[in-house]
Amino acid sequence: MSRPQPPIKISTTHSEVEKRNIAIVLDYMSLAYPPKENKGRSSVSHLCTEDSTFTASTTFPKCHTPLDYADAHARVMSCIADLHIVSYDVVFAKDGHVLLRYSAEGSHCGEPHNGIEPTGRKAQWTASAIFEVRDGKVQSFIKEWDKLNMWKQLGWMKGDEYV
Q1: CA-CA distances (angstroms) from residue 129 to 28, 79, 102, 110, 126?
Q2: Does the global pTM surpass 0.85?
């Protein structure tokens, strides 16, 4: 890990290869999440294989690679300009797979979101990610996130229109 990381609350012992894989994943997260670090795909391309895949069908259905996700996440972060990961609640690895469950927070203090001017409202949420690391790079990334909960807290929903 070359960058400072949020605290890890629960983990286990890992082999040296698993520790390296965790470091690669946390490096990806440290570039893809902070609004000042994420410049889209160029921020993380050096950490991903050329044929990498991304799956988050309910939250980022148009993203198919971790690079697409970095681009889409940069747009979200332009609205939530103070977004940050509070903690990695669970981190564990087995061979080439790394699982993260993390807590994040931020407020709508940046650009308008889908025509909604900044609300100043704060939100807290959790998400989970499963990464596959191959030859020292991210091969696949699967993300699960309760986007609607976050959107409701930020005032981006009028009611249950997305349910």
Answers
A1: 12, 22, 8, 26, 10
A2: yes
**For residue 90, what are the CA distances in angstroms to 113, 128, 143?**
30, 9, 14
DSSP, collapsed to helix, strand or coil, labels residue 114 as coil
Bridge pairing between strands 97-107 and 84-94: antiparallel
CA 134 to chain centre: 19
Look up residue 82 and give its two tokens.
């103070």
Please name the residue that has the structure tokens 């490096």.
Answer: 27
- Structure tokens belonging to residue 25: 């994943």
Residue pair 104/80 in contact (Cβ under 8 Å)? The answer is no
Closest CA relative to residue 80, chosen from 115, 123, 39: 123
pLDDT at position 1 = 44
**Distance separating alpha carbons of residues 47 and 29, to the nearest angstrom:** 10
> Given pLDDT bands bounded at 50, 70 and 90, which one contains residue 160?
low
Distance of alpha carbon 44 from its chain centroid, rounded?
Answer: 12
How would you label 8-36 residue by residue, b for 16+ Cβ within 10 Å and e otherwise?
beeeeebeeebeebbbbbbbbbbbbbbbe
